[in-house]
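Notebook, student rotation project (T.W.).
Task set for the rotation: take a protein with a known small-molecule partner, predict the structure of the complex, and write up what can be learned from the model alone. Partner molecule chosen: zinc ion. Sequence and SMILES entered below by T.W., checked by me.
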Amino acid sequence: MARPGRIKPPMGHDNAWWWEQAAKGVLAIQRCSKCQALRHPPRPMCGECRSMDWDVLAASGKGTVASYTVLYHPQFPGFEYPLIIVLVDLEEGTRITAELKDCAPEAVDFGMAVTVYIHEDDDGFRIPMFRPASQGGN
Ligand SMILES: [Zn+2]
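Predicted structure of the complex:
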């Protein structure tokens, strides 16, 4: 019997566009059109100036680990354990939470340089993840 896949994130009016960009290989960052503040995850209103106007920039995908956690239990289907979750300071100036791959749990550290890549599940679902910058990105 095939293993169940990753639980898909809810996608609605405010965030489906972000997943569409990810499927195209782009790590998108929402930017306020009025004050230029960056924000992630996507949401309808700027937390700085309350503007509802926004556009998008494509992140370089380069950043550093601001914080992290390593999950062993409980083990949900569709994930490989231990699961390293990192909070990344993107060089553009905002943060994103994602999985860190190609890294031993004991090797992850604060300030570690990481690079985004687009992971593709067996069912074709695409999701941005990070790997150590020392291993190169694409
Ligand atoms: Zn704003």
